[in-house]
Amino acid sequence: MLDKGVSTATEDPQMFGHPKGLFYLFFAELWERFSFYGMRALLTLYMVNEIFKAIAERDAAAAVVYASYGSLVYASTVIGGQISDKILGMRSSIFLGGILMTIGHFVLAIENDMAFFLALAFIVVGNGFFKPNISTFVGALYKDGDVRKDSGFTIFYMGINIGGMVAPFLCAWLAVEYGYHYGFGLAGIGMLTGLIFFWSGIKKNVFGDKGLPPNEEVYEKKVVGIPQKTLIPIIAFLSAPAIAWLLASWKDNYVTGIFKFIGVAVLIYLGYIIFNLKTNEARKKLIMAVLITFFMTLFWGFHELSGSVITLFASRNVDLDGIMSAGQTNGLNSMFIIILAIPVSLLWGYLSKRNLNPRTPYKFGLGLLFAGLSFYILSISGLSANENGMVPFYYLFAMYFIISVGELFMSPVGLSKITDLSPKNIVSFMMGVWFLSSAFAFQIVGFISEELAIENVPGQVINPLDTLSVYTDGFHLIALYALGAGAVVLLFSPLMKKLMGNVH
């Protein structure tokens, strides 16, 4: 029975018991994720086989660009979110981001090396405006206390994973059958479709008065004679060539230097905040929020290898004949998330009723153990390799299943705990740090990918027998680090429970 005063009705049009706008945002995000994951499935393979095919260190070059791109994609959300909150509002930000990403995906379909870097830059800038705002927009559709909000987010996140599952299968199939640029082109069509869905929702007024600029006067305010609503898109477009230059300068790897500086600055500032907090309880909770962010960074650093080293391993050392292509294996994670999300959610509900639901530190420790186990599975795959150095597909299949379980133990929990553990006056800052954790995770990806890079004479086909031990030895080392991290977290979980206080 609902509490009195808790409303489930809104003034906005309804569909299937939810605000109608939810379903427009659902399809907009589904197609945006379709474009993002469809492109990601091909990115490393395209760089290794096309962009850098003429150099011996092509794996290392692809690793640097992939890591720099991933870091900038997630870091841009911090800036885009701030601009939306203060000036543009969610609608304008999402639409601007969608346009920029659509341009990026279609430019990626052009067979030109410089167009490649410019395309990535447009996607980086566009994602900064799109990604942080569309999730926030879902929450804005519901009034405070609306009991439908959690199920609304569940529906929305299902769209994310549907897009993430379907895209690699379709885009990678096109890439194999007709060429990489057809796969990239389909990703662009996906992004354009999502943008059209969002625009049609605005035209049909399904969002009511939600997502408008926070202050019309600030929105229209002129800077250097240009209204801010116009100036920001201009700056966004002009920033793309600068980011393209950063990505193209992979030999100098400026992006890693930038993130080292940002990392040190954020840690110093967090230390300053912790030192100046007035109560010991608040200090303990913020320390725990920082630890959760660190553990999540570590997990994503291993998880995001799926788009780089694991894709190359699938291409070179996994027997995929008649099953799927290397790019298509990127869809396995989202497939398992869709299959496992409800059972894991029901598991937590079942354990809660019996007061057995583990506290957050234990879930994080188990999540890291699952990550370690998944890489251990890959590390022993070489024992079943055939005479050509190819391992059975079921090892890769099992790896994605296990790491997906680990993801469900950590990712859905982490975000809500950051808001619970952070002092109210710095929640927005800590959310920014949370987004940055994914950016720093890609720096871990870059480091590992460079360590496992295969050098070869340009034009020669890589022999699977030469690469198998490089990958399996690397996966064994990753497994040890992940298992060790998980064990440490579980060991210190009783202490971390005390740091969390009354937060579960």
Can you describe this structure?
The protein is an all-alpha fold and 504 residues long. Helix content is 75%, strand content 2%. The chain has 16 helices and four strands. It has a two-stranded antiparallel ribbon. A two-stranded antiparallel sheet has the order 3-4. The longest helix has 51 residues. The protein is globular and about 65 Å long.
Question: Can you give me a brief rundown of this structure?
Answer:
The chain is mainly alpha-helical and 504 residues long.
Keyphrases for this structure?
single chain; 504 residues; mainly alpha; two-stranded antiparallel sheet; 75% helix
Largest sheet entry: 2 strands, antiparallel
CA gyration radius, whole angstroms: 23 Å
Straight-line N-to-C gap:
25 Å
Strand order of the largest sheet: 1-2
What value does the average pLDDT take? 91
Overall body shape = globular
The total strand number stands at: 4
- Number of separate helices: 16
* SS-based class: mainly alpha
Topology order in helix (H) and strand (E) letters: EEHHHHHHEEHHHHHHHHHH
Helix content: over 70%
Strand content: under 5%
